[in-house]
Design brief:
160 residues, mainly alpha, 5 helices, 75% helix
C-alpha cells in the first residue's frame, strides 16, 4: 500500500525527531502526574485541576505522536530507558512549591516547542503535510497554555 507520497529516505529524519518528541512528552507527562499528586497550599484546587488537564492532553498527544510514527511506517520508541537517553526533558521532583512546579512546566514547554520546531523543519523538507499540520496545532495549543501559566506567575499589578 502506498498512501504516503514521501520518499523513505526523507521519512527517517522526521521519525527520528518525532521519537525525540515522544520521549519529551512522556517525561513531561510523568512530571505533570507528580505535580498533580503532590501540589499543596492555597493554589491546590486550581493547580490540581490544571495539572490534570495538562497531563490528560499530554497523554492524548503521546498516542497521536506514536500513531503518526506508525503512519510513516516506522515503530515508535516505547522504552523509558530510551526516553531517558534521548529526551531533553528530565525527571523533576514533585516535592517542590507550586510556583516552582509552574516554572518547571514553562521550562518544559520551551523544550517541547524547540523539538516541535525541529519536527516541522524535517517534515517541511520532506513535504510531509500530515506531520506539519499535527505539530502546528500542538504549537498553538502549548503557546496558549504557556501564556496562561506565565500569567499565573505574575503579580496582579504587573503589565504584559
Amino acid at each position: 500500500m502506498s498512501y504516503l507520497d514521501i520518499k523513505s529516505k526523507d521519512i527517517e529524519p522526521i521519525v527520528k525527531e518525532l521519537n525525540i518528541l515522544l520521549a519529551d512528552y512522556n517525561l513531561y507527562y510523568q512530571n505533570l502526574r507528580g505535580y498533580h499528586w503532590n501540589v499543596l497550599g492555597k493554589n491546590f484546587f486550581d493547580l490540581h485541576i490544571k495539572f490534570e488537564e495538562l497531563y490528560t492532553d499530554a497523554r492524548i498527544k503521546i498516542d497521536e505522536i506514536a500513531e503518526r510514527i506508525l503512519t510513516l511506517r516506522h515503530h515508535p520508541t516505547s522504552e523509558f530507558s530510551k526516553y531517558f537517553d534521548i529526551s531533553s526533558i528530565k525527571e523533576t521532583s514533585s516535592l517542590i512549591s507550586d510556583k516552582q512546579m509552574v516554572d518547571n512546566i514553562l521550562n518544559q514547554h520551551e523544550v517541547l516547542l524547540k523539538q516541535m520546531t525541529k519536527v516541522v523543519k524535517k517534515a517541511e523538507e520532506a513535504g510531509d503535510e500530515g506531520t506539519i499540520d499535527m505539530i502546528g496545532a500542538y504549537i498553538g495549543e502549548i503557546e496558549k497554555v504557556s501564556w496562561m501559566l506565565d500569567a499565573w506567575t505574575k503579580d496582579s499589578r504587573d503589565q504584559l
